[in-house]
Every structure is written in C-alpha cells, then in structure tokens.
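quick one, 113 residues, struct below
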Amino acid sequence: MRRLSSESADLIAPRLLLTECANALLTGVKRGKWSGAAADLAYGFLVKLPFRLADDAQHMDRAWELSRRYDNHPIYDMVYVAVAEAASTTLITADSNLRSRLSHLAWIKAPDA
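---
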C-alpha cells in the first residue's frame, strides 16, 4: 500500500472490501487475536484508505459468470476480479488459491510481485 500510494497509483476496490476487512477485524477481536481498541484503530485506518470504491452491484453479473466458469469459486472473490477486469487494471491479492485458479491471467498478482 505504501509503495502504491507513493507512486500515486489509482487504487480501486469493490465496496465489499470494507465489509470483508471490517468483519475480519471483528473476528480477530472475538478470537482474542487483538484488542477491541486495536480493531477500532485499524478500522479508522481502513475507512481512510485511498481507494476509489466500485459499486459491487454493477459487477455482479460478470462475477457470477467468472464464478461459474471457474468451478463455482466463491463469488465474493470474483467481484474483485470483475472490478479489476472492468477497470483494466492489475488485481493484487494475497489469496493464493484465487491466483492459482486464475494463473493464466497475467494481471492478477501477489502483493509482493
């Protein structure tokens, strides 16, 4: 994120990103991985990330097609793929399963790539 921000990269993500990250923060509190105060702080950073948020609903049909094409892979993952595809941009994901499934698409990369 720091590198991309310093390069003034145009960052786009589905609105789903906020929901998934917020849920992960709450799950971490429930499981005792971090405190509520730490989650509150992280949530504050989350909502200030310099992303342009795409409307998930505009990409659902394409996400559905992709999910069906790739062995019914979870649609929430394919929303990220559909948003990146529509924006003609690189999808950076730490999800190794998704990257493996879509390895033929050169525009899907690991965070360290």
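The chain has a mean pLDDT of 93.
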